[in-house]
Amino acid sequence: MRICIRFLLVVLIAISIAGCSATPVTEQKINGVSFVSSKDTLMQSHIDPILNVGVSHAAVMPFAFVRDKNHPELQFNSERQWFGERYTGVKQYIEALHQNNIKVMVKPHIWIWRGVFTGDMQMDSEADWELFEKSYEDYILLYAALAEETHAELFCLGTELYNFTKERPEFWVSLIQKVRQVYSGNLTYAENWDKVDKVTFWGALDFIGVDAYFPVTDEATPTVVKAKEGWEPHKNLLISLSRKHNRPVLFTEFGYRSADYAGKEPWVSDRHNGKMNAKAQANLYEAVFETFWGEDWFAGGFVWKWFHNHERAIQEENNRFTPQGKEAEQVLKKWSKQDVK
Question: I need a surface site. Which of 18, 94, 166, 265 has the fewest CB within 10 A?
Answer without folding.
Answer: 265
